Amino acid sequence: MRVVVADDQAAVREGIVMLLGLLPGVEVVGAARDGEEAVALTVELAPDVVLMDLRMPRCDGVEATRRIRERHPGTEVVVLTTYADDDSLFPALRAGARGYLTKDAGGEEIVRALQDVTDGRAGLSPSVQRRLLEQLLGARPDGTESLGAPAAAQADGLTERETEVLVLVADGLSNQEIAGRLRISTATVKTHINNLFAKTGVRDRAQAVRYAYQHGLVRAPGRSVT
């Protein structure tokens, strides 16, 4: 896969380029500082995929995605951003992005998304897939309320992926089972657990489970939904 990386933060951009350079089957052919450069490099290099940040100067990721997909339909776009809110997600997908990941995604998840979009499939993180289903159905498929990220979890700075991992910890899943459910490595699971422990101030899995119940991320068995 021939990939162009677009991100306005030099350190982030260089880090992504370095990461992708270590992944099998991926060749980074260009790096852009903003959406204008991303479009120009697409014209010049005809990459298979542009890995696109959203919040950039001159031309943001949504507009750049729209231009690329309209003028160069042979190039797919995968968004890689800090933001997973509806105001970021849905405009990017409407503009033509086939994939959407947040920046806490590991290398395995990124290369899987790149491969998915080049094979004609959607390259969406599990949290984004869930959000799309919730938007379509108005609730979770099992009839319970949408998970989202409650105000308390947001205040503690948990990312979407850290919230997902916390919920699965509260459900009693092991690190290996969480890795299988989210299609990430066990090392990545451990990193997310360490991060959420630090952010929430819990010391072990038992306290993490208590936190999840106290903040409405999961419900005690038998508790009905009103």
Describe this structure in words.
By secondary structure, the protein is of the alpha/beta class. 52% of the residues lie in helices and 12% in strands. It has a six-stranded parallel β-sheet with strand order 2-1-3-4-5-6, with helices on both faces. Residues 139-152 and 222-226 have low confidence and may be disordered.
Amount of beta strand: 5-15%
Low-confidence stretches: 139-152, 222-226
Radius of gyration: 18 Å
CA-based shape: elongated
Major sheet attributes: 6 strands, parallel
Distance between the termini: 49 Å
Q: Which range best describes the helical content: under 10%, 10-25%, 25-40%, 40-55%, 55-70% or over 70%?
A: 40-55%
Oligomer designation = single chain
* Number of E strands: 6
Taking all residues together, what is the mean pLDDT?
Answer: 83
User: Major sheet: order of its strands?
Assistant: 2-1-3-4-5-6
Considering the chains and any ligands shown, give keywords for the structure.
alpha/beta, single chain, 11 helices, 226 residues, disordered C terminus
